[in-house]
Amino acid sequence: MKKYKLRKDLEHPTYKNLYRIEALRDFGNVKKGDIGGYIEHEDNLSHEGDCWVYEDALVFEKAHVSGNAHVFGKAHVSGKARVSGDAYVSGDAWVYGHARVYGKAKVHGHAWVGGQSDISDDIKLYEDEVYKNITLPEIPRIIRESELYKVLENNG
């Protein structure tokens, strides 16, 4: 049974191919009639589990949200990115490319996660960081700023 419908009458003011969603039944903390964030098509958000896109968050292209995952605020999930499990993406965060955020991972604030990144377990990424082609929690340290995309295989 479907849990939401696309509201074609409520398109995004800038991205005309994105539409708000409306809950068709109660699930998790969402009530029937609640208006959610924006998605491009039904492949972006599973009808199973308690996953939901809230507020002004956007999920588009071939990105997919499933399980009990939540996308809040003005967050963007795009490309072929996946957000699943009990993961949260919020604030102005972006998850893009082939990135996967799952388990109980949280991506907040202005963090960007892209490339082939895998973020899982209880990892929390936030503020003004960009993470590309990383796997957490397995990689012990990430060099930031001028060496942003380098990942160390050990603690040295």
Describe this structure in words.
- With 156 residues, the chain is mainly β.
- It has one domain (4-152).
- The chain contains no helices and 20 strands.
- An 8-stranded mixed sheet has the order 1-2-3-5-8-11-14-17, with no helix packed on it. A 5-stranded parallel sheet has the order 4-7-10-13-16, with no helix packed on it.
- Strand 19 (141-142) and strand 20 (151-152) form a beta hairpin.
- The protein is globular, with a radius of gyration of 16 Å.
Would you summarize the structure shown here?
It is built from no helices and 20 strands. Residues 139-156 have low confidence and may be disordered. It is mainly β.
Descriptors:
mainly beta; 156 residues; five-stranded parallel sheet; globular
Number of self-contained structural domains: 1
Strand arrangement across the biggest beta sheet: 1-2-3-5-8-11-14-17
Please work out how many helical segments DSSP would assign: 0
Task: Please give the alpha-carbon distance between the first and last residues.
Answer: 52 Å
Please trace the helix and strand order, writing H or E for each element: EEEEEEEEEEEEEEEEEEEE
List low-pLDDT spans. Answer: 139-156
Q: Give the biggest beta sheet.
A: 8 strands, mixed
Q: How many distinct beta strands?
A: 20
Mean pLDDT: 86
Q: In angstroms, what is the radius of gyration?
A: 16 Å
Strand content: 25-35%
Structural class: mainly beta
- Principal-axes shape call: globular
Helix percentage range: under 10%
